[in-house]
Specification:
Number of domains: 1
CATH class: Mainly Beta
Strand content: over 45%
CATH topology: Thrombin, subunit H
Radius of gyration: 14 Å
Structural class: mainly beta
Distance between the termini: 20 Å
CATH superfamily: predicted glycosyltransferase like domains
Shape: globular
Strand order of the largest sheet: 1-2-3-6-5-4
CATH architecture: Beta Barrel
Largest sheet: 6 strands, antiparallel, barrel
């Protein structure tokens, strides 16, 4: 029997993001988001052990959430959200829900 692994839907977006790490601030653009993490184009390369706070907002939903680097494909960094509480998880869910119904959003992105 073949085992299938399912991913949560990802949505293509273009949102400004600020990352904070050890008193340093890095700007970037969120290009894809899901309830588990995001793809980011940063203004400068992230350290391979990046674990810091991400700040982003959309239509009145503002988030400051811990995230860690999971991979880098040269142009984009994959970040996984590190939830400290169910409240944070719910806040990300609300943000993703708003983004998924934004004008021009054609639906989730299918990714391998």
């Amino acid at each position: 029997m073949q085992k299938f692994t399912y991913r949560v839907p990802r949505y293509t977006v273009d949102l400004p993001v600020r990352l904070r790490l050890d008193g340093q601030s890095i700007t970037g653009r969120c290009r894809e988001i899901s309830q588990e993490g995001m793809k980011l184009e940063a203004a400068q390369p992230l350290p391979s052990n990046f674990c810091g706070v991400i700040s982003l907002s959309y239509q009145g939903v503002a988030l400051d959430i811990q995230a860690r680097l999971t991979h880098n494909d040269g142009q984009q960094d994959g970040l996984k959200f590190v939830f400290a509480s169910e409240t944070e998880r719910d806040a990300v869910g609300r943000l993703v829900s708003r983004l998924s119904t934004a004008p021009g959003q054609s639906g989730p992105v299918l990714v391998d």
